[in-house]
Amino acid sequence: MTDTAPPAALPSPRRRTGRLVVGGVVALLCLLSLAAPMPVYVLSPGPVFPLGDAVVIEGVEPVHGDFLFTTVQLQDATLADALRAAVDTEAQVVSRAAVLGGMSEADFIAEQEQLFDDTEALAVGLGLAAVDSQLSPSRVTVDSSGVGGPSAGLLIALAVADLASPDDIAGGRLIAGTGALSDDGTVGAVGGVEDKVLAAQRAGADVFLVAAAQVEAARAVAGDMAVLGVEDLAGAVAVLGG
């Protein structure tokens, strides 16, 4: 007699192969689920658009310095994207429904582009008026390809005011910011301020302008970059020394 247990029966090759195949299917399904689109966007700091070359008045020298229009970007998200965003301090997951508000994506984009066109026309007129310029708005051109929404109004108006005025409003600085403009020049709050501040930091901006109501939110993430809150366009020109 021996106290050695008899060897356990080995699984047949067929059974082992079956487990491997099933395991491969599970792994493939996991990969496919990570790549599947979800009803969310990933929101993060977007590109920064220098307006010094984009805003032009015929026969006038370019801005000394620059005005930087900041943006946020929305990207279609898979499960893998959403998981990465969950651990990224500069990204967040937002519901598509909350962003689109019941519109199709195509209609939303078209609406944002129209808002920018309306903002551009308003900002040009207000920028000229802010420095008592008699120039015709038709002499001002703005290259705005690929941009949407109303939040560039403040920076476009400042760029126009700088070009139309004998004063050097930019003063060699990189001036970033965001803010919607009302017909009377009031600067209104906009979305994504924290992300826009981060975008301005990356671009090396010296100062960031924002509606007075959002100055504390902007300063909370601005680090050493100066943040100035303004009530209206005239106040923005004044605080910059124009």
Features:
6-stranded mixed sheet, disordered N terminus, globular, alpha/beta, 242 residues
Word description of this protein:
The chain has helices spanning 13-35, 79-86, 96-100, 105-130, 153-164, 193-202, 215-219, 233-239, and strands spanning 37-50, 55-57, 66-78, 92-95, 140-142, 174-177, 180-181, 187-188, 207-211, 226-230. The chain is of the alpha/beta class and 242 residues long. It has a six-stranded mixed sheet. Helix 4 runs parallel beside helix 5 (153-164).
* Shape assignment: globular
Helix content: 25-40%
Would you tell me the structural class of the helices and strands?
alpha/beta
Whole-number average pLDDT?
A: 87
Radius of gyration: 27 Å
Strand content: 15-25%
Low-confidence stretches: 1-20, 28-32
Biggest β-sheet strands, sense, barrel: 6 strands, mixed
Element string (H = helix, E = strand):
HEEEHEHHEHEEEHEHEH
| Total helical elements | 8
- Tell me the number of strands: 10
The end-to-end distance, rounded to whole angstroms, is 104 Å
Strands in their spatial order, largest beta sheet:
4-1-3-6-9-10
Compact description:
The protein is of the alpha/beta class. It has helices at 13-35, 79-86, 96-100, 105-130, 153-164, 193-202, 215-219, 233-239; strands at residues 37-50, 55-57, 66-78, 92-95, 140-142, 174-177, 180-181, 187-188, 207-211, 226-230. The protein is globular and about 55 Å long.
